[in-house]
Amino acid sequence: MNSPNEPLPTFDEVLLCTPQTSAEQVGLFLRRCLIPCRGGEKIYTMLFADELSYDVSCRAEELFQHLQRYNNTYRLILLCNCEREHSYIPSAFSQYKVHMIPQRPLPEIQRYLQHHYRVAQPSASAASVFKDNMCVGIVSSKRAGVGK
Known about the structure:
This protein is an alpha/beta fold. The chain has helices at 23-34, 54-67, 88-92, 106-117; strands spanning 14-16, 44-47, 76-79. The chain has a 3-stranded parallel beta sheet, with helices on one face. The protein is globular, with a radius of gyration of 18 Å. The mean pLDDT is 82. InterPro entries: RNF213 (IPR031248). Keywords: Ligase.
């Protein structure tokens, strides 16, 4: 948010981890992050890295240790749930741990995201469904099973 005109991360810069995330997926992601190339200075982020299975976590740490020797300018962020700080990945990378608290108020964060997720020119796209021609939206219900 310090650079409001910078684009949001692209699909190759973010890995959303679940217990079903494979070692191959994590390996490809780490290779994109840690093998030097002329792709610019991207910031790679693994979300919910604490949810990776033990096996996948071990292999990810091994690969990270191996690849980081070839690149000391990588930019990698591992976001984990603080309630799972004793799972494998947060423990293995604990020496790099930084506790993060959002530094901006919610309305400012919302304005920033609206700037990036608004469709430039109104058209006959799915964005017309969401408020203010946004290309993303959240549909929720207080009642379960109402088809949303």
